[in-house]
TrEMBL record:
<keyword id="KW-0812">Transmembrane</keyword>
<protein>
    <submittedName>
        <fullName>Uncharacterized protein</fullName>
    </submittedName>
</protein>
<keyword id="KW-1133">Transmembrane helix</keyword>
<feature type="region of interest" description="Disordered">
    <location>
        <begin position="260"/>
        <end position="297"/>
    </location>
</feature>
<feature type="transmembrane region" description="Helical">
    <location>
        <begin position="205"/>
        <end position="226"/>
    </location>
</feature>
<feature type="compositionally biased region" description="Low complexity">
    <location>
        <begin position="268"/>
        <end position="278"/>
    </location>
</feature>
<feature type="transmembrane region" description="Helical">
    <location>
        <begin position="232"/>
        <end position="254"/>
    </location>
</feature>
<keyword id="KW-0472">Membrane</keyword>
Amino acid sequence: MNPIFSPPHANFYVQASARSPNPSATDDEVGIDLSLRPFSKLLKQDEDTAEKLFDTEKPTCSINLICQRNGFLQKYQIHVINKDRCATPDQFDSLITNVKGLIKTDSQFFKTVKRTYDKKLRGIWRRLFSLKELREIRLVSFTPLDHRPVPVYIPQYTKHDILFAYRHPEKLHSTDEWIQWIYKLRQPNQRYALEFIETWSTLRIMIAVSTLLLLSTSVGVIWSILKDDIQTAFTIASFVLAAGTVLLAALGIVNSIDSSTSDESIRNQPPQNIPPDQDQAKETAVSIPQPLIQPRQ
C-alpha cells in the first residue's frame, strides 16, 4: 500500500474505565457547504475545472467530507493549515486571523469532522429519527478528469483508528500528524475525501420495535376497556405487532444487502497506487507506527 494512504497511527490516551463522551463542539463555523449533488455531477471545488490540475502549493489544504444517500452525494469541505507550510510566521498568523475556521491541530480536525457530519451532512432530524448510524469512515479518491469518488483500499484496523479518533478526539496526543497526512494526500492529479458509511443501528431498531410493542399493547388494553371487547382489541394489537415484525424483517434484509454490496465493492476495487517520485519520497514517507493505546501503568 502506498505510504500516502496510511494515516498516522497517532497515539491515544485511553483510560481503563468506560468510554468517555464525545467532546462538545467549538463555536467556530468552518467549511464550504456544497449541499446535495447527484452522482452524475462533478465532485469538485467551485474553482476547479476538468482541465485544471489541483494546486499543491497553497499554504492551506482542503479535504472533502461526503456521504451518499438515495442517489445523491452530499458534500462539505473543510480546510486545514500548518505553520511549516507557510512561507513566514507572519503569513501563518495572517491566515489564522483573516480566514475563519482554519484547522490547526489533530484534535480540532476530528472535532470539526464530527460536527460537520452531525450538523451539515446528517442534520438534526436524521440524528433524532433515523434508524441508521455511522459504521465507518473510508478514504475515496477523485481526479481533475473524473470526479466520481473511488474507494481507496486501506486496512480495516486503520479505519478503526480513524473512527476512534473521530469519536474520541480528546484522546489524541499528537499535535499535527493527521494535519500533515491531509497535506500528503494533496497531489496535482489526485485528491481524496473522507466518506461516511452508514448502516442500520441495532439499538435504534430495537428501540423502535419496543416502542411499537408497547404501543400495540396499549391499544389493546385501551380498546378492551373502552369497548369491552377483548378479542377485537387484541386482534388490532396483534395486527400492529405483525406489521412491525414485517418491517423489522424488511430492514434486516435491506441491511444485509447494503452491507454485502458495500463490502463487495471494496474487495473488487483495485488499490489506488500513485508511485511518488524521488523528490516526494521524504514527504510521503510515514513514520513507524506507535502503539495505538497507551498501556496501563
